[in-house]
Amino acid sequence: MAPYPLAGQSTGGSIGAYLLNRAKPHLPPWLGVGAAGVAGALGNWRWGESAAAGVGLTLASVALSGATWWIGRSTSAQRRLHSAITVASGSAWVTAACLAGPMAGPLDDLYLMGGPALALSWNVRMLLRTSDPSGESGDKGLLEKVGLARAQIGAAKVEPNRVTAPVALAPGEQTNEDMAKALGNLASALDLPTSAVRYTPDPDSNRRGELVIVPEDMLSEVVEWEGPSNVGGSIADPLVIGRYDDGAPLLIWLPGDPEAGRNSTHILIAGGTGSGKGDAALNLLTEVLSRRDVIVWFSDPKMYQDFATLRPALDWAAEGGASTEIQVAAVEAVIPARTRWLGAHGYRQWVPEAAKTQNSAEHTCRPDGTACGCAGMPFLVTWFEEAANTLRALGDSAFTGIAQEARSAGVCLIVSLQRPSYDQMSTSTRASLPSVIALGCDPRDEGFSLPDEVLAAGAHPGAWGNRRPGYCYAVSPGIPEDRYASPGRTRRFTHRALPVMEMLATWTQRNGAGADPVTAGAARSVAGTAYTGRPDEDAAAQPAGLRAVQEDDMDTVGPRVDPEDVDIDPEADLPGAQAGDDTPIFGQESGRKPSPEEARELFAQALAEFEHNGQMIVGPVDFMDWCDRHNLGRSWVSKRLKEAALDGRLEATNITGRWRIVPVLTAA
Description:
Layout: H1 12-23, H2 27-47, H3 51-71, H4 77-100, H5 107-131, H6 140-145, E1 152-153, E2 157-159, E3 162-168, H7 176-181, H8 183-190, E4 197-201, E5 208-213, E6 239-244, E7 249-252, E8 267-270, H9 277-289, E9 294-299, E10 316-318, H10 322-344, E11 379-384, H11 387-394, H12 400-405, E12 411-417, H13 427-431, E13 435-439, H14 446-449, H15 452-456, E14 471-475, E15 488-490, H16 498-511, H17 517-527, H18 537-541, H19 544-555, H20 596-612, E16 617-618, H21 624-630, H22 634-646, E17 650-652, E18 659-661, H23 664-667
Parallel strand pairs: 8-12, 8-13, 9-10, 9-11, 11-12
Antiparallel strand pairs: 1-3, 2-3, 3-5, 4-5, 6-7, 6-15, 13-14, 14-15, 16-18, 17-18
């Protein structure tokens, strides 16, 4: 026989077990009534003729009633009075029954009527307490200790390692702010860390909310990263970057979802030195790279110290400095191009269908309404690691335009830095980063990482500092608001993760999305040869030293000669001295004076060299070696830069004295 009844079946045993289970909490008052009857009968058999027993029983009854009243002083007045009346009535009947007999006079009728009445009164009290969230609670004394004596806790919802209880504060006397201030004392009373007690205010009330208590810190155990959670899935699916303190997975969403009403987001990753910010970034990056419909542009001034294994999977990898400058400019250029494409194909925001070939008449750019067959557009993640360096070089508003405009274009901006203070990042940029992964930090920096309401709810990353690497709070669209103040922990990357990361990079090269023509074209219109797209798998699989030797061998067939010396005749006499050769190059007008035609030709060659090498941001300092080779002065270069800007070959950047080369392919 099956151990459980099938659906649609019922048995007398199962119904009886259900009723018994529901009745158990209400049985104690009735058991007390029955015990009083048995005590009266046994007492009469033992002391029915004893005057001394009568005196003792009377004194015991009075003492028990008084003790009940004294013990109940820490409870509510209603509970204290109810308990005292119940004990006094029961002890008085037992005393009378012991002396006169349980059947004497009206004692039997009093027992049959009064006993059930008292038992039912306690049953009613229990029903009211469990059904009314604002009713009394046995935790009244605990709230009184923390200065919220008149607050009331409703029926608690008990889950594995998590207790959630509704709280109603005293009307007109207490507010949600008072509860938030009392969380530290409440944690002390429960002998728990501050982060284990949180309070989520009710948005529709200033005196109601939910109190969450996590008695055991499940984050103390280190969990190593073993691989992505959803290889081959969509970037629109949740990204698993760790777990919460109650064991639930810590999830992040990047694109928006019009069906769920969730907006696309940008992310700030903030944490002090030693807080585990690198592991948090690796958790997020590996999840992103394992999805089929996303490309990643990544900038790391630390030369990919933590991300070298994943570099072959990146569509564009910049190393800081001028390469990051041009990457920022390229991101700014692709936003309107991508927005225009999405709008032309009927998308109000990026969704996974936009990454597929457009074979639907519903999403076509053709005026006649037939399917256009355009290549799909993958989601774009632009990641700026150690962004403080970039912000110092480009200014604190370097990401402002991107942050404000990129979300509708299917572009996610991720900024990672240690201290997101307003002297490093503009207030406009910070306000445009709605999501944050906040790791341990200095207590004085908490307000830069998390919103005030999350801090008020009990979040306290300053308590961790660098003592608990990987501990974090996550605030992002898609995460329930009551989770904002719940601490989580990312998974740790060790040397055992390297082989899996290498496999992930290979998978991404074989199966990951490539840049669509619109995005790639807009990037090349700004970056020129600096943007090449993700490297081939075969080239990336070779060791860097071997690739360098092979490339060198390919470029130097025959004698090894510098390109600038190819046309020199080794047998010809050296040229004679020219005017200006003995004059200092920098600090004054110096060097030889080429003709205007020669000057334009030389400078055009210089810009072509920079463009060929992928250096699309230049200034006078970049021409120092070039001036040495051609015996030209710095002031001459400054004049040529201004002329090139007027001709449209250069474009001014946000930094004085720095110019962006306009690729020849767009100038033609």
